[in-house]
């Protein structure tokens, strides 16, 4: 991993959420519960993980908004009953919507 990737990974703040994300892979549809969310991705707990490197199509609505996010996700970490997914191909508008939602959620928990 180069320094740009590691510094990018560190700067993405993670905010606890209780959010259902729809994931489609190999013509199968799954609903995963995200325990935290960042602009770069999400962490799913209490789920059967896909293999690292797998690509899935993601769709979810941000808490408290009607904004629906659609993007590809890459499984970057798999654990027993948990996995981390990195958002791939996220539009600038969706990135801003996620950032605004994270700001709002952080304010609500303080």
Poorly predicted runs: 1-10
Q: Please state roughly what percent of the residues sit in beta strands, choosing from under 5%, 5-15%, 15-25%, 25-35%, 35-45% or over 45%.
A: over 45%
Q: Helicity, in percent?
A: 10-25%
Named CATH architecture: Beta Barrel
Physical arrangement of strands within the biggest beta sheet:
1-2-3-6-5-4
The tally of strands reads 6
Q: SSE order in H/E notation?
A: HEEEEEEH
| Secondary-structure class | alpha+beta
Relevant CATH superfamily: predicted glycosyltransferase like domains
The CATH topology corresponds to Thrombin, subunit H
Largest sheet: 6 strands, antiparallel, barrel
Description:
The structure is a single chain. This protein is an alpha+beta fold and 110 residues long. The chain has a single domain, classed as predicted glycosyltransferase like domains (Thrombin, subunit H, Beta Barrel), CATH 2.40.10.220. The protein is built from two helices and six strands, in the order αββββββα. It has a six-stranded antiparallel beta barrel. A hairpin with a 3-residue loop joins β2 and β3. It starts with a helix and ends with a helix.
